[in-house]
């Protein structure tokens, strides 16, 4: 296909000169992979509905929505690639706020664009679109090559985030299932309500109270209590006495004292319900991505400093959850020396930040996304 005065060179690599069997083969491979993934998601959805796993089914729907959004972004980037690359700006504007130090000399035929890369990768824009702007003494807003790498980054980010969320639900489920034998042992004990009401529990001697107030004490400072919660999250975060006491407190508060209530099954359901809220990439997370790309300026070391954000938040959330348990123990020990029946704590939202437990879930959502973002960014610049 011959080119005219527009500066386009003839190319024998275009689709007009590509063997039909190659086109058919490549098309078949992509269609097969797409259909296989679609059937896999469809089968998984039917399995979840059949087993009454509504929260996980809704999470799967959010994954599908995320993949659809990814496909739409991919389509827009592909369709408007040439249009974006023909948007010309002053060359002086491209010399400021760079992610990498620009090296080499600009050529009238090829305009080099330093794009986001931890190893100083250089991307060379296509000559046709660069000539369009260089003839005007300007530079392209974003070269096709840079746009292609941005395309890849968005794809990798979405895939890594979904994989990260799936691994989280798997590991979380494994952790909760280690508590199953505690629930089974409670059921095997054949809880006697009349006997429990007639007995007297000495608060200070209860294992739950001793575990959480043995070091801190009742009248010690809040700082010491937070320090205890901070270190407690790294070992034995939930003990058997914690599980039994929190279980009974939940049952007495929400289940009208039904001691046969399967608290472990409820915990699994709660994990699945929370999972559907953290699996997607919300709009504010996309805003975070844009802000990071804006602030990833050479010399600012944004990628290094931002790595501390999820670590700090993770430790803060873990310490807060431990502190909530300690506060429940503190409330009972402060009010009572002995109580009739078993020790019962009173679950309350007031122990969470601003009396809103949902804030913890939002922070976990951000932590998961931030970790996925850093891993995706690492693979992208590798």
Automatic annotation (TrEMBL):
Membrane topology: Multi-pass membrane protein
Primary localisation category: membrane
GO biological process: defense response
Keyword Transport applies: no
Ranges annotated as spanning the membrane: 20-41, 67-84, 150-171, 278-297, 303-321, 359-381
Keyword Metal-binding: no
Keywords, alphabetical: Membrane, Pathogenesis-related protein, Plant defense, Transmembrane, Transmembrane helix
A cellular component annotation (GO) from this entry: membrane
UniProt record similarity statement: Belongs to the MLO family.
Record protein name field: MLO-like protein
Species, as recorded: Papaver nudicaule (Iceland poppy)
Lineage start: Eukaryota, Viridiplantae, Streptophyta, Embryophyta, Tracheophyta
């Amino acid at each position: 296909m011959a080119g005219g005065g527009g500066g386009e060179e003839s190319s024998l690599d275009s689709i007009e000169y590509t063997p039909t069997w190659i086109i058919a083969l490549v098309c078949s491979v992509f269609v097969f992979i797409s259909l296989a993934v679609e059937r896999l998601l469809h089968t998984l959805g039917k399995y979840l509905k059949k087993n009454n796993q509504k929260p996980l089914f809704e999470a799967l729907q959010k994954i599908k929505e995320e993949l659809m959004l990814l496909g739409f972004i991919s389509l827009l980037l592909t369709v408007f690639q040439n249009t974006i690359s023909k948007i010309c700006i002053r060359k002086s504007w491209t010399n400021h706020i760079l992610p990498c130090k620009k090296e080499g000399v600009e050529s009238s035929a090829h305009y080099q664009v330093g794009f986001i890369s931890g190893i100083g990768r250089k991307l060379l824009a296509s000559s046709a679109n660069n000539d369009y702007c260089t003839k005007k003494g300007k530079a392209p807003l974003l070269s096709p090559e840079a746009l292609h790498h941005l395309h890849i980054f968005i794809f990798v980010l979405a895939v890594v985030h979904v994989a990260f969320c799936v691994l989280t639900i798997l590991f979380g489920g494994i952790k909760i299932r280690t508590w199953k034998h505690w629930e089974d042992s409670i059921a095997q004990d054949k809880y006697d309500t009349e006997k429990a009401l007639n007995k007297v529990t000495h608060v200070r001697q209860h294992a739950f109270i001793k575990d959480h107030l043995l070091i801190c004490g009742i009248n010690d400072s809040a700082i010491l209590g937070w320090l205890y919660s901070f270190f407690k999250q790294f070992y034995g975060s939930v003990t058997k006495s914690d599980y039994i006491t929190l279980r009974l407190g939940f049952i007495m508060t929400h289940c009208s004292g039904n001691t046969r209530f399967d608290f472990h099954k409820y915990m699994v359901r709660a994990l699945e319900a929370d999972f559907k809220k953290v699996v997607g990439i919300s709009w504010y997370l996309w805003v975070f991505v844009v802000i990071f790309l804006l602030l990833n300026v050479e010399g600012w070391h944004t990628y290094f400093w931002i790595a501390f954000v999820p670590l700090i938040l993770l430790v803060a959330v873990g310490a807060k959850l431990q502190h909530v348990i300690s506060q429940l123990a503190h409330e009972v020990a402060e009010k009572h020396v002995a109580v009739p029946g078993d020790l019962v704590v009173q679950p309350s939202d007031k122990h969470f930040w601003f009396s809103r437990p949902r804030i913890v879930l939002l922070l976990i959502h951000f932590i998961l996304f931030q970790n996925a973002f850093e891993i995706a960014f690492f693979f992208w610049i590798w």
